[in-house]
TrEMBL record:
Residues in SIS domain copies: 45-187
Family as reported in the entry's similarity comment: Belongs to the PGI/PMI family.
Lineage of source species: Bacteria, Bacillati, Actinomycetota, Actinomycetes, Kineosporiales
One protein family per Pfam: bact-PGI_C
MF (Gene Ontology): carbohydrate derivative binding; glucose-6-phosphate isomerase activity; mannose-6-phosphate isomerase activity
Protein name, as recorded: Phosphoglucose isomerase-like protein
SUPFAM superfamilies, per database record: SIS domain
UniProt KW keywords: Isomerase
InterPro entries: Glu6P/Mann6P_isomerase_C, SIS_dom, SIS_dom_sf
GO biological process, one term: carbohydrate metabolic process
Gene3D superfamilies for this protein: Glucose-6-phosphate isomerase like protein, domain 1
Top-level taxonomic group: Bacteria
Amino acid sequence: MSAFDEALLADGDALAAADVGGVLRALASSGAQVREALDLSAEAAVARLADDDRPRAVVIAALAGSSAVADLVQALAGRNCPVPVVVRHGGPLPSWVGPLDLVVAVSLSGRAPGPLTLAVEASRRGARVVTVAGEGSPLAEIGARSGNVQVVPARGVRADGGDPRSSRVALWSLATPVLLACDALGLLQASPADLAGVADRLDAEAEASRPWTETFVNPAKALAAELAGAVPVVLGDGHLMAAAARRAAGMLARTSRVPAVSGALPDDASEVVATFGGPFATGAAADVDPVFADPFLDGPAGPRMRLVVLRDAPTAVSDEDRRLADAITTTAADAGVRTSELVADDGTPAQRLAQLIARTDFASTYLALACGVDPARSPHVADLKDRLG
């Protein structure tokens, strides 16, 4: 990984040239992914799920990058969801799953072993199955059986020109049919009109974060610059933004190659605040006044922690939650920990969540490009896949 290149970050043409895999272009297509997925879901008759009885429980089977779909569902369903929503990345399928339950299996390729195994077993037990999977894939074949629902993911813009596309940049192709299915079952609010609003919000964020916008007015570029050389701790200010925080940490690790952790308030408040007194909060050479620091005698300063707080729209946050988030950022400042705060605009829960996911997706990609990293491909991940056959 190279040193952070501020000049490249400010040069839209240079960014486009460096982004050989087309990740920025793919992320910019997120709004289009939602609209195409709405059409594909209508063709697949996802809405007919509303004619069936509400399931006893919903199991969402998703792996790796596709698991963000499950996070979205759990965040938008909230703690008052009328039925349990259980997430599984692989087998075995819970023993209680049967004809009264619904299993939603998501895989862009339609060949991910975990979702495929779970869908096969769910179908064998007589559970209803909804699949979002590549056309002609083994998983799609299960979804196409009588009584099930199969949706082909929206094509959008391919990152890296490969087949299948990376699930990291196809989030909204995968999530839209699942959200529509859950809306039809009365588990959350994500009607076609609601999701059209999500598409508009994603378009607006893509416009604000486009490569040719100056860094000081581009929220994603500004965040990338703040994260350069840092160890990010991403904190969501509540249940909804917890999903955005997990997505951000995953994108920083997978796209930027930066180790990052996530948490959510109020549950993780004490754990996060405790790190303000640790080695990453002050840097390896913190005992030396930076004015007098000598890189040859004292060694280079270590990476420093950066607190990234994802905050819901002010009108959607209780006074108690707001006070807690404010107290944590004040404590961070007193401890010398630098903080970046991202605040969602007003809108539906899905719109607010989509906005901050999009911003951190773009920021992770800009951070990768400015550090000389290919955001589309990791040679180490490729090596791991080769070793596993």
